[in-house]
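In the design runs reported in the main text, the only information available to the sequence generator was the tokenized backbone. The following block is the verbatim input for one such run; it is reproduced so that readers can re-run the procedure and compare outputs position by position.
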């Protein structure tokens, strides 16, 4: 921390200057370890020992730079770990992190499309732990969630084979992660992938060339067209059952509202493999204008991929729709992500 952020004439700040950087880097976010519960970690610890060690380092780090924000290690599969860590560290940390990687090893499309159930249950669990441990703290001052590792990862699960190639169904699952983050945006304040280029990544490169993987496009769409505040959305649609009897609605929806721009954005995933779904979209506050900008991620086949030779097998279709109102009909194509941008006036 002193090396990166120190501004005084101290040993590590001076070492940074000697190495060619005069001004501080001002690194804001710092993680207190990584997956310390895991047997794959050389420094594996149980929750109690991890929390005690993390508290010591948190005190030291904030003493060097009180402006930094600290992220403790959470565990998406163990609420007891999270409870013990939060109970010990709630006064010293700003975020608790969880990680999740998913895949379609069984090549079962509809089971894979039910991944959002797992994402939602993990977020609900961690939010419940935060609320339980910090019940006497105002909600807006409680520790937040950093979902700081997540992706589809199952084909290339070896150190020497990490160049995962993604298809359309993978992109739909990435879209589900992003929709969940929007629905839980009062808790989830950080949500990032750990690798961006070549290694389980949205961008693939080689000397003199690159292509965008299918999972690049959900990022592009949702990041560019969702601003302002997240909205609750009521969805009533048909569903299907998984083997564990859980009901999965065919439509997965999130929404946001940008008051400054007067725009309402709907992000809709149609999980149905073969069928379009006709819907009625109803807005209950303000007046929706006629024009809708549409950004649609789809392809003919759920297994469609991009590669260096065929870079546009999967991509975003842009078009407009001119018949919107506070209640209008729209048909979402099968196995697709569609983002609708609507104009809303008071």
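Verbatim output:
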């Amino acid at each position: 921390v002193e090396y990166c952020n120190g501004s005084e004439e101290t040993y590590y700040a001076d070492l940074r200057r000697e190495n060619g950087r005069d001004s501080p880097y001002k690194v804001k976010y710092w993680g207190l370890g990584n997956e310390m519960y895991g047997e794959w970690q050389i420094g594996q610890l149980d929750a109690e020992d991890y929390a005690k060690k993390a508290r010591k380092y948190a005190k030291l780090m904030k003493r060097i730079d009180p402006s930094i924000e600290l992220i403790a290690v959470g565990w998406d599969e163990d609420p007891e770990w999270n409870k013990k860590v939060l109970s010990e560290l709630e006064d010293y940390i700003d975020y608790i992190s969880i990680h999740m990687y998913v895949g379609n090893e069984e090549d079962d499309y509809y089971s894979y499309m039910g991944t959002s159930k797992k994402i939602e249950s993990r977020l609900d669990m961690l939010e419940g732990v935060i609320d339980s441990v910090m019940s006497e703290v105002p909600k807006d001052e409680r520790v937040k969630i950093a979902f700081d590792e997540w992706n589809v990862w199952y084909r290339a699960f070896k150190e020497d084979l990490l160049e995962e190639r993604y298809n359309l169904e993978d992109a739909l699952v990435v879209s589900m992660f992003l929709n969940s983050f929007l629905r839980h945006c009062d808790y989830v304040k950080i949500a990032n992938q750990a690798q961006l280029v070549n290694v389980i990544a949205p961008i693939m490169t080689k000397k003199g060339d690159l292509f965008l993987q299918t999972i690049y496009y959900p990022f592009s769409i949702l990041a560019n067209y969702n601003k302002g505040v997240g909205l609750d959305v009521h969805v009533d649609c048909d569903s299907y059952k998984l083997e564990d009897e859980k009901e999965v609605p065919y439509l997965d929806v999130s929404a946001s509202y940008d008051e400054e721009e007067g725009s309402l954005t709907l992000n809709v995933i149609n999980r149905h493999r073969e069928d379009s779904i006709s819907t009625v979209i109803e807005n209950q506050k303000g007046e929706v204008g006629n024009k809708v900008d549409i950004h649609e991620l789809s392809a003919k086949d759920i297994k469609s991929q991009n590669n260096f030779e065929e870079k546009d097998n999967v991509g975003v279709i842009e078009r407009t729709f001119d018949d919107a109102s506070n209640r209008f009909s729209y048909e979402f194509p099968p196995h697709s992500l569609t983002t609708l941008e609507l104009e809303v006036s008071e």
